[in-house]
Amino acid sequence: MRRFRSSSGFGLVKIHFGNQKLHYEANHQARSQTIEVGLHFEADRFTNARLLGAFRVHERKIERALPGARLEEWDKGWARIWEPIEYEGLDAALQREVAGRLARYIKVLEPMLRDELPADVPWTLSMPRPKPRAARSTSARRSPAPRRRSG
Question: What is the pTM assigned to this prediction?
Answer without folding.
Answer: 0.77
